[in-house]
Amino acid sequence: MIDFCGIELAHPVINASGCFDVLAARACFGEELIERFPFSAYVSKTVTLAPRAGNPPPRLWESAAGMINSIGLPNPGIEGYLDEHLGEYAKLGVPLITNVMGSTAAEFVALLAALEDRSEVAAIELNVSCPNVATGLDIGADPRGLRLLLEELRPLTQKPLIVKLTPNTADVGACASAAEEGGADAVSLINTLRAMALGYGGKPWLGGGSGGLSGPAIRAVALAQVASVAERVAIPIVGMGGVSSGADAAALLEVGALLVAVGTESFRDPAAGARISAELARLFAENAGS
Amino acid sequence: MIDFCGIELAHPVINASGCFDVLAARACFGEELIERFPFSAYVSKTVTLAPRAGNPPPRLWESAAGMINSIGLPNPGIEGYLDEHLGEYAKLGVPLITNVMGSTAAEFVALLAALEDRSEVAAIELNVSCPNVATGLDIGADPRGLRLLLEELRPLTQKPLIVKLTPNTADVGACASAAEEGGADAVSLINTLRAMALGYGGKPWLGGGSGGLSGPAIRAVALAQVASVAERVAIPIVGMGGVSSGADAAALLEVGALLVAVGTESFRDPAAGARISAELARLFAENAGS
Amino acid sequence: MSAPFGRRVAVVVSRVELGAYVVLEVADDATPAAPGQFYMLAAVERWGGGEDERPFLGRAISALAARGERRVAFLLEDVGPGTRRLCELEAGDDMYLVGPLGRGFVPPEDGQEALLVGGGVGIPPLAMFQEAWGGRALLGFRDAQRAPGASLFDNPEVATDDGSVGHHGPVTDLLDRVLGEGGEFVLYGCGPPGLLEALRVRALRHGVAAQLCLEAPMACGFGACYGCVVETTEGYKRICVDGPVLDAAVLV
Amino acid sequence: MSAPFGRRVAVVVSRVELGAYVVLEVADDATPAAPGQFYMLAAVERWGGGEDERPFLGRAISALAARGERRVAFLLEDVGPGTRRLCELEAGDDMYLVGPLGRGFVPPEDGQEALLVGGGVGIPPLAMFQEAWGGRALLGFRDAQRAPGASLFDNPEVATDDGSVGHHGPVTDLLDRVLGEGGEFVLYGCGPPGLLEALRVRALRHGVAAQLCLEAPMACGFGACYGCVVETTEGYKRICVDGPVLDAAVLV
Ligand SMILES: Cc1cc2nc3c(=O)[nH]c(=O)nc-3n(C[C@H](O)[C@H](O)[C@H](O)COP(=O)(O)OP(=O)(O)OC[C@H]3O[C@@H](n4cnc5c(N)ncnc54)[C@H](O)[C@@H]3O)c2cc1C
Ligand SMILES: Cc1cc2nc3c(=O)[nH]c(=O)nc-3n(C[C@H](O)[C@H](O)[C@H](O)COP(=O)(O)OP(=O)(O)OC[C@H]3O[C@@H](n4cnc5c(N)ncnc54)[C@H](O)[C@@H]3O)c2cc1C
Ligand SMILES: Cc1cc2nc3c(=O)[nH]c(=O)nc-3n(C[C@H](O)[C@H](O)[C@H](O)COP(=O)(O)O)c2cc1C
Ligand SMILES: Cc1cc2nc3c(=O)[nH]c(=O)nc-3n(C[C@H](O)[C@H](O)[C@H](O)COP(=O)(O)O)c2cc1C
Ligand code: FES
Ligand code: FES
User: Fold this and answer.
1) Which of B76, B160, B170, C205 has a beta carbon 3.0–4.6 Å from A141's, enabling a disulfide?
2) How confident is the model at residue C67 (pLDDT cuts 50, 70, 90)?
3) What is the DSSP letter of B75?
4) CA–CA separation, A126 and A52 (whole Å)
């Protein structure tokens, strides 16, 4: 059992926000999904105050050892989320983490208020890092602003606050440290790297213009950022970015993460989380034996 | 012919700094290297005031669709460069660009002074972005500091100044714009992304601890950064990062680069520059025809 | 009926070339697919390292037939690094399989005649449809290299762009003739975007129902990434879970 | 003699398994390699998509022999994604080739006896050396699967770690015996780092010259990246251009 901000988790592998929709997956894979649920906690896709349709298609581009997405945070808004999704997620039997994004501090305040008396929500992840929405980036990339935001939000909730940092910054350690000073209970990283692709005729391919790079291509960047954050903060770290094997997960844990999140690899293998957590357990057992 | 800061170039493909050592290449490939020289200009490896041995090995790690290097800027120092290298480079018959890095403004001043009356040097590239050396990063990631540096350096030389921006920053457009305001004649990007790899036993593999990611893995990040810089500056842009084909080069030109630099792909194919420039010419001819 | 959770390894049992197409048969004893459903496929070995260092993600490929027992077949055309690698696979090679996925076609009601209108590599769902529920097949191909795809159907009517086989012109010429004859038709379409749009317009014009099997770049195929959306009268819909078969009436 | 500039495509003309090793012969009419020189190799198709989405860079592989005319041969052991892919290549497959590269061995002077001490997949430069200039071969292998590598030599003396073939123990046991016999020796070594270090120490102790063929991860093979350095008495040296063969006396 792992103690993550007071939440007990069966193993260190969770999903990355926006990379696993349990409702859709259940429709595809039936009860087997629940019986063999691959993650020790379930992180929701980013929820905003008002519903969002997301970006116009095309939303995907396959790149060298990775992909670029410009999904644009489609979600039913906090009300729709609470009314339609949360009850379903609760059936999973694992702790739930709700990922939220506001474009102003006031929006974050309202999001936290809406979640506060929902006991199904074990923790809240603050997305201050989405490269597709200008505001998320700006707050997350500026240490001072990030600290002020956390100082404002921290007193408003009993639930642990996880800050999802932006990787598109000069000094991610400084941002993590600012989040910690502001009262964050944990940090998670990395989100996607700002990226772009052109289609036919040299026009931007993605409907959203640019997007975010994920997958093995960013793995080594994630490792460096997690390592530098670990040198700066004492709060738990959720490491992610290109994890596709137990060895990748072990590397993130080695440099200081407490949990590991799997995003893109779940697209290639829906049960990747379970495979990675099994590989990780095997690696630990081998090391313990030697 | 392309006019790059007043320098005439036969085609838009040059080498990325630190990715092609003509002296060694000539020893390997003989005169054919000179006869079929793949680049329209030759950019030196970064030169510093004092000689540097570089980082302890291992210096390389192969990653998904790319590589991480922690070379650590070995170079003979500006005197050694001027005495032993520059004369040899001059035999190439293409314009020479000298890439320099100082760890203080005073060092940059001294480097510029040393180059000023060497007519072989057509332009100077200022490396304010090397992720292996703390100072380079700091100057390049902070727009204000970068502008001040340029304001100090600009009056000291007649030669065009190209600022090699760091990609490890929140807003590369702001940095580019600051460089332009400070008097830069061109900007070049992207340098390698800060990255890390672990070897056996979970210890950092690279002798330098961390390193820089290059190759196709960073291509889509490079395209996004070049595009955002192009929206902010009017000075010429040298685009690079993961270019391995004429199509990759065309994409960088499409979003606003005037020249394209080839780094890692030259390791896989020493004559890659020539192949890419030929592919680019073919693409242009096709588009002109259609 | 749901798909097994996760990605499984399946063995290619046969590889047959059908003109420009490749038909792979794969051993699999999971739930059989319904017409219009698809799988996410990848080669186990060497998935990557092609053009632009791709493929990386799995590729959505329609079930062609659940031939005999414990088999699923696919029809492939080499159009890029992913299909190229899949087309290379030989009997005995391993493949990753996720599926069957998505919502397939709804069969016609009594008294309705199913018109199956397919273009190029879009024919597999229709071949499976015809096997299950019958229907009249109108098929369009680019040329004689692709027209052999028609051999997967009973009594197909064929058109080719270059006139090398069957009618010289678009498959919609055949459709317009049939629609002109009158009858209680339902259209079932699968093929390139232009063909689907032509079917949507004809369905509207003739007041007949049409079920169209759509395509989009997909990262996951099971609703996880929200990448494969198409605009509908009810907002963006994920093709992989709300489709790939959608009623033409909801498309905008 | 310099290598052709750039990467060229060469065709594999034969593939032979030699125990756990694979010998590939490739058609190439460039400058022949000298003993100790190497090439940067990559498969033209599907270089990538293996373990950890590798290989990406070319792989440094020693010339084994310039057998007959316009041929170059390589000895490979599958130790990772790059060598695995190269080992897979069959006659008729295309390979990218850069080289020959680096500085090879300097032949012994008159009156000196060359002792060729090789370990495992490090034997190719020594096989080529013996073909060109003779010498007494002392070879160490892990086991009987690898010992067939000795068939590339004339009159080799063999040791294996598991004693399955020849002497049971390290190849340095054989060397110590020969050195004990006395004579005007020069050591030529190639193999794993531990063996090279053992040779360096013995060369020092016995006051004999030793030329060691070193290894390091290489990105380019032609001095461009500065990635392959080894520490010497004169500072860091690039193994690809200042080596791969270095005088043991300069190593620290
Ligand atoms: C439900 C469904 C069923 C399908 N059934 C079949 C089938 O039965 N048989 C069959 O052969 N095909 C089928 N397809 C189509 C097939 O999945 C796609 O053509 C697939 O993307 C081909 O991959 P590729 O690597 O071969 O080609 P790609 O290089 O991926 O090219 C295919 C198209 O994708 C776009 N594209 C190009 N580069 C990129 C990139 N880097 N990132 C994203 N998009 C890019 C372009 O529009 C291009 O024309 C189906 C698709 C769907 C959604
Ligand atoms: C001059 C020279 C001559 C050589 N001659 C031969 C020869 O004739 N035959 C032969 O079989 N081999 C030869 N080698 C060795 C061969 O080039 C290497 O073993 C090669 O790296 C194998 O690549 P791989 O992908 O198969 O294995 P890798 O996975 O690259 O593993 C090989 C070693 O590289 C390191 N490594 C592991 N992962 C990485 C990574 N991601 N990035 C960087 N390093 C990593 C580890 O130390 C590992 O043991 C030679 C090497 C040199 C320098
Ligand atoms: C399709 C897609 C959608 C994503 N949506 C979200 C999101 O809604 N909120 C969020 O915080 N991160 C989102 N992310 C980022 C991931 O959570 C993760 O940080 C990133 O993808 C890196 O991990 P990976 O390489 O394992 O995918 C998304 C990533 C992808 C690929
Ligand atoms: C081995 C290696 C050494 C490099 N050395 C330098 C250097 O000395 N100075 C510099 O400004 N950039 C250096 N770079 C960065 C490249 O010039 C280039 O910005 C980067 O590699 C991205 O391009 P690529 O993906 O085409 O390699 C180096 C890159 C590599 C891979
Ligand atoms: S392909 Fe991922 S949601 Fe449809
Ligand atoms: S391998 Fe690049 S310098 Fe030696």
Assistant:
1) B170
2) low
3) B
4) 17
pLDDT beyond 60 at B137: no
pLDDT of residue C50: 87
B130 labelled catalytic: yes
Active site residues of A: 130
Task: State which residues form the domain around A36.
Answer: 2-57+71-196+214-289
Whether A96 has a pLDDT exceeding 60, the answer reads: yes
Which residues of chain D carry a pLDDT beneath 70? Answer: 1, 66-68
Is any atom of ligand 6 closer than 6 Å to the C-beta of D229? no
Mean pLDDT for the stretch of residues B223-227: 97
pLDDT band for position A132 (50/70/90)?
very low
Whether A118 maps to a domain, the answer reads yes
Question: Residue A135 — very low, low, confident or very high, per pLDDT cuts 50/70/90?
Answer: very low
Please determine, for residue C58, whether its predicted confidence score (pLDDT) is greater than 60: yes
D92, two tokens:
């008729």
Asked if residue B133 has pLDDT above 60, the reply is no
C138's torsion region: left (phi>0), alpha (psi -120 to 50) or beta?
beta
Tokens at residue A122, please? 């074990």
- Residue C214 CA, ligand 1 centroid: distance in Å: 12
The larger pLDDT score, comparing residue B287 to residue D218, is at: D218
Quote the percentage of chain C above a pLDDT of 70.
98
**How many alpha carbons fall within 13 Å on the CB side of residue B281?**
11
Give the Cα separation of B127 and B180 in Å (integer).
Answer: 15
Residue D186: which region, alpha, beta or left (left: phi > 0; alpha: psi -120 to 50)? beta
pLDDT tens readout for residues A197-224: 999 888 999 999 999 999 999 999 999 9
Selecting among B5, B19, B28, B130, the annotated active-site residue is B130
* Rounded CA separation D29/D167 (Å): 40
For residue D50, give the nearest of C46, C50, C53 by CB distance. Answer: C46
Closest CA to D243 of D87, D94, D60: D60
CATH of the domain at A41: 3.20.20.70
Question: Per the domain annotation, does B64 fall within a domain?
Answer: no
Closest listed residue to residue D221, CA positions, set D55, D6, D1, D73? D6
CA of D48 to nearest chain A CA: how many angstroms apart?
9
Residue B276 lies in a domain: yes
C223·A23 Cβ contact <8 A: yes
CA distance C220 to A194: 21
Mean pLDDT, range C236-249, rounded to an integer: 97
Pocket of ligand 4 (CB under 6 A): B 16-19, 45-46, 69, 71, 73, 99, 127, 130, 164, 191-192, 214-215, 218, 240-243, 262-265; D 225, 227
Give the torsion through C-alpha atoms of B237, B240, B244, B250, to 10 deg: -20
- Closest to A53 (Cβ–Cβ): which among C219, C220, C235? C235
The interface pTM score, or ipTM, of the predicted complex is 0.96
Give the number of other Cβ atoms within 10 Å of residue C182's Cβ: 8
Minimal Cα–Cα distance from B61 to chain D, Å? 8
Give how many domains chain A has, as a whole number: 1
Which DSSP state fits D121? G
Rounded-to-integer distance, Cα C77 and Cα C120, Å: 9
pLDDT for C144: 95
Name the residue among C3, C4, C10 with its Cα closest to residue C43: C10
Q: Strand, coil or helix: what is B234?
A: coil
Residue A58's Cβ-side half-sphere holds a number of Cα atoms within 13 Å equal to 19
pLDDT at A134 over 50: no
Domain annotation covers residue B202: no
* Chain C neighbours, 3+ Cβ pairs < 8 A: A, B, D
Residue identifier of the C-alpha nearest atom 7 of ligand 1: C61
What residues of A are in contact with residue C241 (Cβ under 8 Å)?
24, 27-28
